[in-house]
Amino acid sequence: MKKYIQNLLIVVLIITVLSWLVFSKIVPQYYLPVYPFIVLFYIVTSVLLFSYQLRLAEKDLGKFTRSIMLITFVKLILYSALAIVYIAIDTENAKIFVVCFMSLYAVFTVFEVFSLLNITANGKKNG
Question: Where are the alpha helices (DSSP H) in 22-93?
Fold first, then answer.
């Protein structure tokens, strides 16, 4: 878990620097004040879900494998609900929000997939 947190912090640092460059130098008119909270939301959900999946993998790799699809579905529903609520509240910035939200979704999903692949690869080597 410690390695995951370290890697997550590196990803978040890269996202923060790139976001600062984009929103301060290239397209400052598209900055949303809610953007840091979106990043924080992704960090929290990533850590919580990864720790849950890590516990599953340590107990039973088969159960872990079966649960991945369910967890991904629940995560997608949760993220969609958040996006729908925000879009309903702030329709003026909906397009900007969706681009930011989906960009972060893609980055965090790729990071989580590689982290989970690492778990399963280590599980097969050790067991």
Answer: 35-59, 61-89
